[in-house]
Amino acid sequence: MRRTRVLTAVLALAAGLLTGGPPALAAAPPDRPAAAADAPARSALAADTYTWKNARIDGGGFVPGIVFNRSERNLAYARTDIGGAYRWQEQTKSWTPLLDSVGWDDWGHTGVVSLASDPVDPDRVYAAAGTYTNDWDPNNGAVLRSADRGASWRKADLPFKLGGNMPGRGMGERLAVDPHRSSVLYLGAPSGKGLWRSTDSGASWSKVTAFPNPGTYVQDPGDTSGYASDNQGIVWVTFDESTGTPGSATRTIYVGVADTENAVYRSTDAGATWQRVAGQPTGQLAHKGVLDTENGHLYLAYSDKGGPYDGGKGRLWRYTTATGTWTDISPVAEADTYYGFSGLTVDRQNPGTLMATAYSSWWPDTQIFRSTDSGATWTQAWDYSSYPNRANRYTMDVSSVPWLTWGANPSPPEQTPKLGWMTEALEIDPFDPDRMMYGTGATVYGTENLTNWDRDTTFTITPMVRGLEETAVNDLVSPPSGAPLLSGLLDIGGFRHTDLTKVPSMMFTQPNFTATTSLDFAESHPDTVVRAGDLDSGPHIAFSTDNGAHWFAGTDPSGVSGGGTVAAGADGSRFVWSPRGAGVHHTTGFGTSWSASSGIPEGAVVESDRVDPKTFYGFRSGKFYVSTDGGATFTASPATGLPSGDSVRFKALPGAKGDIWLAGGESGGTYGLWHSTNGGQSFTELQGVDEADTVGFGKAAPGASYQTVFTSAKIDGVRGIFRSTDQGRSWTRINDDAHQWGWTGAAITGDPRVYGRVYVATNGRGIVYGDTSDTGGGDDGGGGTDPDPDPEPTGACKVTYEITNQWSDGFQAQVQVTNTGPDAWKGWSLTWSFADGQRVSQLWNGVHAQSGPAVTVRNADWNGTVAAGSSVGFGFTASRSATNTEPAAFALDGRACTVA
């Protein structure tokens, strides 16, 4: 079975911000049967070049790890539990995503359980990837390695799974590079798989058979799903660089194990043998182990639970490596803790200064502790002046991400915005004692005047999260007027974007759902909007009469336990709702009372006709249902051949009564895209669409009368995001191999006002939107057309060459080639020469060859056909010298191109 948002309800309630997982995809389906005789003919698959951006939210999910490189200033990385990894860009104070190239079949590799930045060669970075260790993710984990700071990756598959979104994911880091011999890496595995080592810079891995303890701790042994009952395994690796010399493997290594009685092990012979460290505390788990080699202190943060949500007791300990002495340096008595410790960092410029977090202090707030004397004494980020009033050492400025206040007005001692929760990532910049970053369940916070703390003056905390987009998206709508985009999200509800390039001021409130499961608007009255969602207690449906700017709650029918799907009548006079826990219901007005619908089963997906206000549709278990009386009664359609399961999404076309597109199915069964023009009485399966998971509509192409159709699908054997401007007769893949975002099967919609623009729901990388380079293409995200379009070239081809990233001895570039002639290309070959000895090392979306300075790039199998006026793009990484002159001339199949 395909499974969406698979985390258990009890965990979702406890998490506060708990991101979900996409379906567990099975093997590819068998060859599809021939399409019906009246199916439209198919032409060859074409390609177009799109510019992809995020609709800005800034954050939105759990950041369990932040890693600074120890040898190069301003080089830092962040990992997320389901949303990939990011690299810090100091010039723009923003994060660059690094794993957008992860594809549909490997969606689990968007979960990153650990990161390591090579301290010897800063260009090298490693990511231990995999989302679940149980059967929710069918694939094993992998260690991804990059020699260009994450611009491109190579993969080493592992014989076990990794759990970027599993319990214990805030512990670590589980992946570590030997600081003296950086070809040696260690990885702590979950699930009892032990300690693993690579001696060839992550290309291959073998188990360290001498390591004695694979871990014993599980959160909940009775959990039959395998999620909370997995052994959390080996959780961190720390090298003592004082015991080695450059070129030789470090002699002393410490390893943390999820075992409350045997948490810390050590090797003094470069990993040949291992011993339990004598005298260590017992009864709790060592979440972190951070070594101050100058003073010879190993600091450890302990909690009685694995986190990131649980933890009721904790301690901080210091181990003196020279004498073997253990010292309890906890800032408070154990009896006074109601939390565990996890976040732990040492100031590398001022040894003896360290900080730690009370990661599981949910109420009234998290706590951060600081010591400047190796843990002998501590101060904390806030204290009680006179309960319930607080005295904070810090001020918070969230004006760049204003929704972090949650629109709340809490009573003391709670405050808004909160200092945080799930604060397991905490790092002081090793080159700048004033800069500190820490991760929460919703964002990355930081400061650049941290040492004010020691002078008893306030320091300022701000979001340091721009570019890091980590939300799981359930639904998207783009009305014909008002805001261009409304979204339904897990964890933080959803947003109204009036400008895609700016962070909205607030998420949807009144009520504030923990997850918005479905959104709709009245097609002829777009100011009328409805949303359904999950909430611990309170109503599960809300309405807006001003295009989603303000909301008011409706009333639930009896038995509702979750949001389900909801549909608005075309004129906004009535609504149909299929909530979780109750059958399908209908109402006139704004949900003050509901009546049960008949003729349709509980759990059906519901949608509205976009023309007739009394016509609604439903789907459940292979059957399509139609109501023509406002949702009071439904009748099963005679349509056959539809998917038998419930992983189906369908939409009715605006402006055409009874025009319906349906996508879905499951691997190994009926799976594809269907179209009905008679109100669902019959459907025609589209030929050549092997699999489809979403469908949506946007503005018609110039000269076309039918709206543009978008889908996340597999067409002609290629997985991607596709566009059709001719009712599905032909398709254009509009993403590329560098922009795949793992699983994109929840929702898709075009923009009715901007031709070619598409909004794509991801499971962890937020809302991605794309604008076409094709005729009538997009703008800057504000909703209009390009105010300063490029002049039309006079040649038969136009080339845009852009260096998108550059480092000391390498760079990354993107090339776009536009067909400016009158005829389609049936295959293409682009040539140019480098002036400064650059050498292409890796290229995607094409096949390359290089002889001396001359480079030739030919089309891949899927992007050889380029229609007149359309574009095709590819990217590459290359080595360079001190200069990196851009090519001055390009030729396509021997014809000179215009260079833009």
TrEMBL record:
Residues 769-794 are annotated as: Disordered. Coiled coil: none annotated. Residues 790-900 form the CBM2 domain. Residues 775-785 have a biased composition (Gly residues). The keyword Oxidoreductase does not apply. Residues 1-26 form the signal peptide. This is Cellulose binding domain-containing protein.
